[in-house]
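Before relying on records like the one below, remember that each one covers exactly one chain. Contacts with other chains, cofactors or solvent are not represented anywhere in the record.
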Amino acid sequence: MKYSKLFNLRVISVLCFLLFGILIYVGCGGSSSDASLLSNIISNEKPEIIGVNFASEAEEENYYIELEKTLNEKLSGSSSAPSKCATTGLISVILNITTDEIKTTVAYDLSKIVVTANVAGEQPKIVIPVWSIYSASGTLSGTVYTSLAKSETAVFSATYTENGVSKLALFRLKVNGLTSIYLSKTTSEIQIPGTFDLGSELAVTAKYYNGKTQEINVVSGLVWTTNGTGMLNGSVYTSPAKVETAIFTASYTDSGITQKTSFRLTVTGLSTLTLSKLTDEIYLPSTYDL
């Protein structure tokens, strides 16, 4: 009889211990719904940020800090359970770099980013997260992102889960594409007969998504075309034997993006000839100096 009571007490104790463990596990984020919750956050609750323009780098940095904080709060859920378990679970995920740059139509391997997990009561450790696109136009295959021929700031989430608790960090990849080209001047004038060297007379500048610029020319890939009736050889235009207004188009392609701009050249010629007088007379014999 005593043995039976002792056995029952042990069973009850074990059951209580298991129940207590389950409650702690669920309260600390051990719910199997973490994956679906993350999917909902990334897919359904994100703002449109591809075209966001920031007044400064500081403003952009603060925006993504707050965004990352908000996503982690949603990932943890609205309950206060995570705070009770913060001393025994995953606290945060940190990236060794949070931004980088590439050109358009180029591949970028996210696996080169070092991801560190901070777990309460333990030393920080390097982990392998799950990478997902948060906001980007290109494609992500495993950890390799391939950008399109489009300028953008691609945003990715690196998510790590341990003991049912998930944390994420955001990474921004600035895809720098050609945004425009512009000329030092847009019009000029020559007289018949004449030539005009577009290469020496004009400075052509290419501007990129990150704000950087560089001078370009025929050697670097600049192409000139015209509707003029003269002869265009590379960047040198020889005017026809008549007046005209020739329009030139400068075209430049870099990493799949083409930008154009135009230039107008007015070709002028002799239109009238005026004499100081139309008639005169002399006596014979005589000479006349025109």
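Confidence is low (pLDDT under 50) at residues 1-9, 11-37, 41-51, 78-86.
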